[in-house]
Write a structure and sequence with these properties.
- It is a single chain.
- The chain has two domains: about 260 residues, Alpha-Beta Barrel (TIM Barrel); about 70 residues, Alpha-Beta Complex (Type Iii Antifreeze Protein Isoform Hplc 12), CATH 3.90.1210.10.
- The relative contact order is 0.11.
- The chain has an eight-stranded parallel beta sheet with strand order 5-4-3-10-9-8-7-6.
- By secondary structure, it is α/β, with parallel strands linked by helices.
- The chain is built from 13 helices and twelve strands.
Length: about 350
């Protein structure tokens, strides 16, 4: 089945050689406070992220009463749907796309009505075929994290979503561990997944710091998702352990763009700035001792020294055996005009 190699999220093309789409994952780092959630939008927008993303859920619809400890853990981090309506307006005024992850149909329908530009699918829902079909039928791009799944499961989710009519799919390599040990990040999966599945592939990060997602960009990640928070020292939050705060996110976004620029075209050429270094970095033929006019140059008459303003070492065969048009002093750079010849090679 064929999928689109680039997809549109809001006014941004993602994949197909476009700049990396950076999602600032606010998640539930608002801890149930709309004011904190607004501040997280500010952090993402001021840093230059492409989108800010939250988690939208109704606790009782998400978690069974058989797991009361999880209900107790999640309910304080729940915001009412009306808060997300406000946050979307707030994000639009700040000039940043609003996105959110839904984990069940009721929340997904709300987000669809709210007008989110794409649906993010968490790793836990990749095997949830009814939910995936529900999302895929809505006609919006799907960004699917793959943190708990292998190749067979990924092929299955692509088939499910494709059969439901969705061709705009991006996969996010992910390790669902907070924090992810560096040795388990397995970033080489990114180019492998791009080749194997034929869709844009990004990276959802759960490591401490941001050098790992920067490496993901260097390996070709088309999307990077990084958690954000206001205070990394907050206890009782697995997300804050792996998040960027305001200063971190600003530095991270700047370095993402530096990495993208540094990747270049892949064609091996001498850059303009490097050309300015040719004279001091390369060498020329230099007289080993004083040479008289009319002397026929031999290999024993020259050494190779900087600067590169004279006859290059790789041109030595064309210079040896020629007569000098004038005397050359010891340690003087030898140039073509110092040799008797109508045409320099």
């Amino acid at each position: 089945m064929k999928y689109n190699v680039a997809l549109k999220i809001g006014d941004r093309l993602v994949g197909g050689g476009q700049p990396c789409f950076v999602i600032a994952e606010a998640g539930v780092a608002h801890f149930g406070s709309l004011d904190i959630a607004r501040s997280l939008v500010d952090v993402a927008a001021e840093a230059g992220a492409d989108a800010v993303k939250f988690q939208v859920f109704k606790t009782e619809r998400l978690v069974s009463s058989a797991a009361p400890e999880w209900i107790e853990r999640l309910r304080p981090k729940e915001l009412p749907f009306s808060s997300f309506e406000e946050l979307k307006r707030y994000a639009e005024k700040a000039g940043i796309l609003f996105m959110a992850t839904a984990h069940e149909e009721y929340s997904a329908d709300f987000l669809d009505e709210l007008g989110v530009p794409a649906f993010k699918v968490g790793s836990g829902e990749v095997s949830n075929e009814p939910f995936l079909r529900h999302l895929a039928a809505k006609g919006k791009p799907l960004l699917i994290s793959t943190g708990l799944h292998d190749d067979a499961a990924i092929r299955a989710v692509l088939e499910v979503c494709g059969d439901a009519g969705c061709r705009d799919i991006a996969l996010l390599h992910c390790v669902t561990a907070y924090p992810t040990p560096y040795g388990e990040a397995n970033l080489r999966a990114i180019p492998v997944m791009q080749e194997r599945y034929g869709v844009p592939v990004g990276y959802s990060d759960h490591t401490v710091g941001f050098e790992i997602p920067l490496a993901a960009v260097a390996l070709g990640a088309t999307i990077v998702e990084k958690h954000i928070c206001l205070d990394k020292s907050i206890t009782g939050s697995q997300d804050c352990k792996v998040a960027c705060d305001r200063a971190d996110l600003r530095a991270f976004l700047a370095q993402v763009r530096h990495v993208e620029v540094a990747l270049g075209s892949g064609e091996k050429v001498v850059s303009e700035s490097a050309r300015r270094s040719i004279e001091w970095a390369r060498k020329s033929l230099v007289a080993r001792h004083r040479l008289s006019a009319g002397h026929r140059l031999t290999i024993n008459d020259v050494v190779m020294k900087r600067p590169g303003t004279g006859i290059r070492p790789d041109e030595v065969e064309g210079a040896i055996g020629r007569e000098l048009a004038r005397a050359v002093e010891a340690d003087e750079v030898i140039k073509w005009e110092h040799l008797k010849s109508d045409v320099a090679p």
